[in-house]
User: Which sequence fits this backbone?
């Protein structure tokens, strides 16, 4: 296991390096003069020269790349053109907001998705099975941004049940410690604000969770159906074991591998979907940070934002890969 | 050499005969699958709408009448009007053209490039396989919409560039699929036979390897069109795809969202159109997978 973990970590290096190359070339591949594109048609020659110098675009590309990688290795993510602040100083609150939203969305997706899949398999061809699978089919076809808009319209603007934008009650904020507001409100002992934070989380996290939830439900169902037809499950039932234990203990444990793979892959979808959900719900996360940077042609922020999300994505997939071995001892890696 | 040429033709012919029966079987099983037929029906419905949009649309796609801004659905305007007094029904019909066009062309691009790279990697192996596979790994390390945003950030926002971006991000999915297919087909006896009679690499690849890998490609492509339509709409929604006054469904949603309280219909119908089209391709893709390539199911 340890050897496999080390090998798997080493295999990340070329991928991370390749990602860095892709991100590095985002700004350099702009057709024409990047400074002109960033500053617009009205830009003066001096301003353009200054920006080119600031971005280090005068050096040969390999020198630029060397500086870029050296900077990244020492934690330097560049400087925002809009705020002139180092990106590494301003990115954490955005990143924390996205992590909080994605984590809650993933938990909702896993909890509802896995259970809906199990019950559908348990009561195959029942009305529950049909309803759940039709909903899952609609769920994977629904555009997350449209669902978000519709939720916002129905539950916030029309019915007024839930807030439509933001992360907390801004009139009564709590002291920021971790930037994860669910934790910060608890640290401050402000349970009223904790409830507010949850109320703000419901709509965006449900919108974000829909697609992963649908996919997880479908894969859990088919994986469970396969396992439940096997001999040892029949034996367990023949012994008179209660169906609940047969399903949740014996079957689920063996059906979980494909589900886990899908969950790992869905994290990418979730992080990508965050940019759309955050735009709709005014959620100050990294997706919105990148979206606003696009509007301002703030290329260093676009680059670093994309690099960070992609890095988180591959790290999560690494963890999922390692979890396989932990869960299923039959899997051997050479 | 005529003997060799004859053998080559015989092998080709044998292969075609063999290949025809799984297709016929697949079609039979597809026809029995009601859900898949509903999906195909939805897709056909939107294809007809896209082709005949100018005949079906009661108003011009960009006809404005400011006196009837944001009016609710009525007999004259089935889906209501938007902030410029444009007929939403007509715009949704025209939107089908853009979405289907982007979906089909971008996926065709990904299939062609993905297959090309996948075949080279799988057939020739060694360093070229390592290189291409690592490039695919790197591309798949980015959440797809972010990679699309990166491409559009470089090329500039437009519908055409969104199409290119979507084509690029889907290349590795097809590349990997065809590579693994090539690796397994390469070991088959008829490929060895083809090689033994001196058939050229190109002919083996295009006459034998590719036809034997086409079922999973068709399945994957159908499902990829669904994703491509959503991605194009997402880029349009973020202002990185279609530009005004193009009647693209995602862009229509973005433009109408500020009027969602007064005129929710402006947001409702373009979104429903996206969802239905995507659902159609998903249902059809699922059905094709069950019919043509049952092994892919899980």
Assistant:
């Amino acid at each position: 296991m340890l050897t496999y973990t080390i090998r798997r970590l080493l295999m990340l290096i070329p991928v991370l390096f390749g990602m860095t190359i892709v991100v590095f070339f985002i700004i350099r591949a702009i057709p024409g003069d990047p400074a002109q594109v960033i500053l617009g048609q009205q830009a003066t020659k001096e301003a353009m020269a200054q920006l080119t110098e600031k971005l280090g675009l005068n050096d040969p590309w390999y020198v630029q790349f060397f500086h870029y990688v050296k900077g990244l290795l020492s934690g330097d993510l560049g400087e925002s053109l809009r705020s002139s602040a180092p990106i590494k100083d301003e990115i954490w609150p955005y990143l924390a907001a996205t992590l909080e939203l994605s984590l809650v969305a993933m938990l909702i997706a896993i909890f509802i998705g896995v259970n809906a899949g199990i019950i559908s398999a348990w009561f195959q061809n029942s009305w529950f099975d049909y309803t759940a699978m039709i909903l899952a089919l609609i769920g994977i076809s629904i555009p997350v941004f449209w669902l978000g808009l519709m939720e916002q319209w129905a539950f916030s603007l029309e019915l007024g049940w839930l807030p439509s934008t933001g992360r907390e009650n801004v009139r009564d904020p709590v002291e920021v410690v971790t930037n994860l507001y669910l934790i910060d409100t608890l640290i401050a002992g402000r349970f009223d604000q904790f409830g507010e934070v949850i109320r703000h989380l419901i709509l965006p996290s449900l919108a974000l969770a829909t697609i992963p939830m649908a996919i997880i439900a479908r894969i859990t169902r088919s994986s469970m159906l396969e396992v439940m037809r096997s001999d040892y499950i029949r034996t367990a039932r023949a012994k008179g074991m209660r169906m609940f234990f047969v399903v949740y203990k014996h079957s689920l444990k063996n059906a979980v591998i494909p589900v886990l793979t899908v969950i790992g892959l869905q994290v990418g979808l979730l992080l990508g979907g965050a940019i759309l959900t955050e735009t709709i719900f005014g959620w100050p996360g990294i997706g919105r940070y990148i979206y606003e940077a696009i509007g301002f042609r703030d290329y260093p922020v676009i680059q670093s934002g994309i690099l960070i999300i992609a890095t988180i994505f591959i790290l999560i997939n690494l963890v999922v890969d390692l979890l396989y071995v932990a869960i299923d001892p039959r899997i051997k890696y050479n | 050499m005529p003997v060799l040429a004859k053998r080559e033709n015989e092998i080709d012919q044998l292969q075609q005969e063999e290949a025809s029966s799984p297709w016929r079987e697949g079609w039979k099983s597809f026809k029995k699958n009601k859900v898949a037929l509903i999906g195909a029906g939805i897709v056909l419905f939107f294809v007809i709408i896209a082709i005949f949009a100018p005949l079906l649309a009661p108003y011009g796609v960009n006809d404005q009448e400011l006196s009837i801004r944001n009016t609710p659905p009525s007999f004259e305007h089935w889906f209501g009007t938007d902030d410029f007094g444009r007929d939403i029904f007509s715009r949704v019909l025209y939107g089908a053209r853009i979405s289907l066009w982007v979906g089909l062309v971008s996926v065709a691009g990904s299939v062609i490039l993905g297959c090309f790279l996948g075949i080279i990697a799988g057939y020739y192996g060694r360093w070229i396989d390592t290189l291409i596979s690592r490039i695919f790994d790197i591309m798949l390390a980015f959440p797809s919409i972010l990679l699309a945003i990166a491409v559009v950030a470089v090329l500039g926002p437009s519908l055409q560039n969104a199409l290119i971006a979507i084509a690029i991000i889907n290349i590795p999915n097809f590349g990997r699929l065809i590579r693994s297919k090539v690796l397994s087909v390469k070991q088959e006896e008829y490929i060895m036979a083809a090689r033994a009679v001196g058939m050229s690499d190109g002919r083996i690849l295009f006459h034998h390897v590719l036809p034997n890998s086409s079922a999973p490609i068709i399945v994957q492509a159908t499902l990829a069109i669904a994703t491509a339509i959503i991605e194009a709409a997402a880029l349009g929604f973020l202002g990185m795809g279609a530009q005004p006054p193009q009647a693209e469904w995602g862009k229509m949603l973005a433009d109408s969202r500020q009027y969602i309280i007064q005129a929710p219909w402006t947001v409702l119908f373009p979104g429903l159109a996206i969802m239905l089209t995507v659902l159609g391709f998903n249902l059809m893709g699922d059905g094709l997978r069950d019919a043509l390539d049952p092994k892919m199911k899980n």
Observations:
- Chain B touches chain A through 44 residues (CB under 8 Å).
- Residues 2-296 of chain B form a domain with the MetI-like fold fold (CATH 1.10.3720.10).
- Chain B has one domain: 2-296.
- Chain B is about 75% helix and 0% strand.
